[in-house]
Design a protein that fits this description.
This protein has three helices and two strands. The chain is mostly helical. It has one domain (17-92). Strands 1-2 form a two-stranded antiparallel ribbon. Helix 1 (20-39) packs antiparallel against helix 2 (47-66) and helix 1 (20-39) packs parallel to helix 3 (73-92). The protein starts with 19 loop residues before the first helix and ends with a helix. The relative contact order is 0.16.
Length: 93
């Protein structure tokens, strides 16, 4: 018999949550894309974009420090490849 204090199995989560590497890579791309959209005009980058980029670097360092035990070789490789793709996004603008 089912415990009445537990949710039904239909609503039970069947995964272990979103990995920290996916969250940080997604955040990086969203912040850089929005920052480029807001802070560029006529191929000139406003100084505030570099402030946003610096704060993003601080966030990355803090997130890596905080969640270091979750990063295995695959997650770390995904983060490095994702970070290497940011200049491509920068060059597309």
């Amino acid at each position: 018999m089912r415990d009445p204090n537990q949710p039904p199995t239909v609503f039970k989560r069947r995964h272990f949550g979103t990995p920290a590497s996916f969250t940080i890579i997604t955040t990086n791309y969203i912040i850089v894309a929005v920052g480029l959209a807001i802070c560029t005009s006529n191929h000139h980058i406003h100084w505030f974009f570099w402030v946003i980029f610096g704060l993003l670097a601080v966030y990355n360092a803090y997130s890596l420090y905080k969640n270091w035990e979750e990063y295995d070789k695959v997650s770390l490789a995904a983060y490095i490849i994702g970070a290497a793709g940011l200049p491509l996004l920068f060059l597309m603008f």
